[in-house]
Design brief:
single chain; 502 residues; alpha/beta; Leucine Aminopeptidase, subunit E, domain 1; Aminopeptidase; 2 domains; 14 helices; 34% helix
């Protein structure tokens, strides 16, 4: 499916018993700042080395602190003491990051097998699942296109070691964590492809290949079909590029499906120059990530094909390139969407909302009762919330809260922002139903959300603006530079918990 291998999927297993007998390259022992490790059944040499480091304050247990030890009397090659912070603060979110940090640490030492001793606060079903997810995330390669000087080894296998008890539930948690981690890696891999490789047509072909033989059906609307459906907003954005647009439609429908029909709509501008309203040269290379919303939808369906859901889920991924040329759409143009709404173009760099507008309309034609769109939509949202939280808009309140709850359970930080009618003047046009961009730099994320709301109408709708969170500009122990796969877990959790919000 991918031109380069961006990740391996490590073989994950649950091991019950003492850690000394676990065969692995690296055994990771979590060390908490406020608890000792006297009950871990470690060999005397390892326990003594830990105690010595503790006594000199070299080992404090601060989050992601690393100390490497020889594995005397153990089947492992090396031991890594990895700081876990305060045990009382451990959560599934932290466990996910801890698992990733453990896997990345092993890879940085050229090791392809790692085992994590899940003790104390890390031994619950929720934290074991998150550890498995994190270990899977650690297998992602940001340097897949390098032919030399690659810094990290492949991660081939991982184990989570527990003392005893509840092993069936814990084994299921490990399996689910692996699926969730791989779904996020799918999104990261698609997002990280260079734009000369991943065009709208190639994205569509890869979606077909990804879901061939699974429970997910794929339909691709090409340019002629988009014209038949009068999708003038999507076509308008695409007309400046030699790469033809695509609308990818994914359908997961279980037998005897009933209840709500959830539509997940992801923006996939495979490269965004800004069009005639061209962007500055600085950081334009990052605009290959302007399809992270579409990538998140692909990742979510990757998981649905493996875990299932109780109700029907539709995915729509409108995909275009936004390029300047003699055929490109211009400021001052008026485009007509499939919904019949007319839009005055005031800024061709406000293109994502246009393609989403047609896709949201089409989702309703396909029977969607609830809508969620996800997009790297506005720099304004990144300015407002930084690189930590994704913006969340929605109506009615109950639906927005349901989406936020799914984000909390999935481990995505979503922060609600207002869409009051008081902001509607930002999109007024003298000659069309609305303008595509506000004539002011204030409230840009809100005006973009209001534009989308016009196409959702009265259907419950939520919008995730991930412009600030879709990629990381700097490395952390649990996140290398590059695509983050943000919101994949939110979409999966939402799709798999329809009974809670239907």
């Amino acid at each position: 499916m991918l031109s380069h291998e961006f990740y391996t999927t490590p073989t994950l297993r649950l091991v019950v018993g003492p850690p000394a007998g676990v065969e692995t390259d690296v055994l990771v022992v979590p060390v908490f700042a406020d608890t000792d490790a006297t009950s871990l059944h470690l060999p005397d040499a390892t326990a003594s080395a830990m105690a010595a480091l503790r006594s000199t304050q070299e080992l404090k247990g601060e989050a992601y602190e690393q100390h490497w030890l020889a594995a005397d009397g153990m089947a492992a090659g090396r031991v890594l003491l990895l700081g876990g912070g305060a045990a009382g603060a451990v959560s599934p979110d932290f466990a996910r990051r801890f698992g990733t940090a453990a896997g990345l640490a092993a890879r940085s030492r050229g090791q392809g097998r790692v085992a994590v001793l899940a003790h104390g606060a890390l031994e619950s079903e929720a934290t074991v699942r998150a550890l498995a997810e994190g270990l899977t995330l650690a297998a992602f390669h940001v340097d897949a296109y390098k032919t030399r000087d690659r810094k990290l080894a492949d991660l081939h296998s991982a184990a989570i070691v527990v003392s005893a008890g509840g092993t069936n539930a814990l084994a299921d948690a490990v399996a689910l964590g692996s699926v969730l981690g791989e779904a996020t890696n799918v999104a990261r891999a698609v997002a990280h492809e260079p734009p000369n490789v991943l065009t709208p047509a190639v994205l569509a072909d890869r979606a077909k290949a990804m879901f061939a033989g699974t429970s997910v059906q794929v339909e691709v609307l090409e340019e002629a079909q988009l014209r038949e459906k009068h999708m003038g907003l999507l076509l308008g954005v695409a007309q400046g590029s030699v790469q033809a647009p695509r609308l990818i439609v994914l359908t997961y429908e279980p037998a005897n499906a009933s209840g709500p029909v959830l539509a997940l709509v992801g923006k996939a501008v495979t490269f965004d120059t800004g069009g005639i309203s061209i962007k500055p040269a600085e950081n334009m290379d990052k605009m290959k990530y302007d399809m992270c919303g579409g990538a998140a939808v692909l990742g979510a369906f990757h998981a649905l094909a493996r875990t299932g859901a109780t109700s029907k889920v539709i995915g729509l991924i409108p995909s275009v390139e936004n390029m300047p040329s003699g055929t490109a759409f211009r400021p001052g143009d008026i485009l007509t969407g499939a919904s019949g709404l007319t839009v005055e173009i005031t800024n061709t760099d406000a293109e994502g909302r246009l393609i989403l507008g047609d896709a949201l309309w089409y989702a309703k034609q396909l029977g969607a009762t609830h809508l969620v769109d996800i997009a790297t939509l506005t720099g304004a949202c990144a300015v407002a919330l930084g690189r930590v939280a994704s913006g969340l808009f929605g109506a009615p309140d109950a639906w927005r809260e349901a989406v936020q709850g799914a984000g909390t359970r999935g481990g995505d930080f979503l922060w609600p922002l207002p869409i009051s009618d008081d902001y509607e003047d930002l999109l007024k046009s003298d000659i069309a139903d609305m303008a595509n961009a506000a004539g002011t730099r204030y409230g840009g994320a809100i005006s973009a959300a209001l534009f989308l709301k016009a196409f959702a109408g009265d259907t419950p709708w939520a919008h995730l603006d991930i412009a600030g969170t879709a990629w990381a500009d700097e490395s952390k122990p649990y996140q290398p530079k590059g695509p983050t796969g943000v919101a994949v877990r939110t979409l999966i959790e939402l799709a798999r918990s329809a009974e809670t919000w239907a």
